[in-house]
Request: fold
Amino acid sequence: MDEEVERRLERTESHLAHQETTLAELSDVLAEQWRLIESLGLQVERLRVEMQALQDHQDSAQGPEPPPPHY
Reply:
């Protein structure tokens, strides 16, 4: 019986070590993905500001839109 308990304990310890390794790897991947999401969010915001500036410039360069011909 002692051998059975020892074998089960070793197997449990092995599984635990594997799970700890997997958890550390997943944590690293999650941290990298979060950094990427933050970077992409900043890029989107910069592009939004740039697009708004271009739109504002285009609107001010064209002046008011003339009424349609049927008016």
